[in-house]
Amino acid sequence: MEKIYIDENDKELIRGKKLRFTKCKHTCYVSVFYENSWIKLHRLLMGLNKESPLVVHHRDGNGLNNKRENLLICTRMFNNQSLNKVNDIKFGYINYYPERNLKKEWVAYYTSFGKKYKKRFFTYQECFKYLQRQKEIELQKLKEWEKVFNEV
Fold it and tell me: In whole numbers, what is the pLDDT of the chain averaged over residues?
């Protein structure tokens, strides 16, 4: 059985309600049968209905940790570009094209806030260092964005 983390004050909200676990990509969430329909627990706790364009971001990446300090209301773009995803080892990727104009070029790709970037290099080391720098820049941007969302 999966363990749900929730604040003591919020337990009364789900007491006696039907719960179910759902998996979305690689994350497990809990849904609550509330007012004749199923709603994800984190949306219920943050006061978002199904029609709201805003989403709830789990700061630690654990969809079952529904403590309020772990939840942040944000845009879909921020959630898709969140810190736990930037910290993922898959941030960006590198391709090697030995056949292009006999140059043997390396190409770094990454996505930042919905925009795709691509840059060419002559060595793998340059390409790798570039992606590491971009990852650090993205982490800094996201920390600034999170401060803005916390103020609102």
Answer: 81
What is the distance between the alpha carbons of residues 27 and 64, in angstroms, rounded to a whole number?
A: 8
Residue 24 CA to residue 62 CA, distance in Å, equals 12
Cα 148 to Cα 73: distance, rounded to the nearest angstrom? 11
pLDDT band for position 9 (cuts 50, 70, 90): very high
Q: pTM above the 0.90 mark?
A: no
Give the pLDDT band of residue 44 (cuts 50, 70, 90). Answer: very high
Residue type, 78: F
DSSP track, 18-56: -EEEEEETTEEEEEEEETTEEEEHHHHHTT--TT-S-EE
β-strands 55-58, 71-74: how paired? Answer: antiparallel
Taking alpha carbons only, the member of 61, 63, 64, 86 closest to residue 145 is 86
Distance, in Å, from the CA atom of 149 to the CA atom of 82, rounded to the nearest integer, reads: 13
Q: Look up residue 5 and give its amino acid.
A: Y
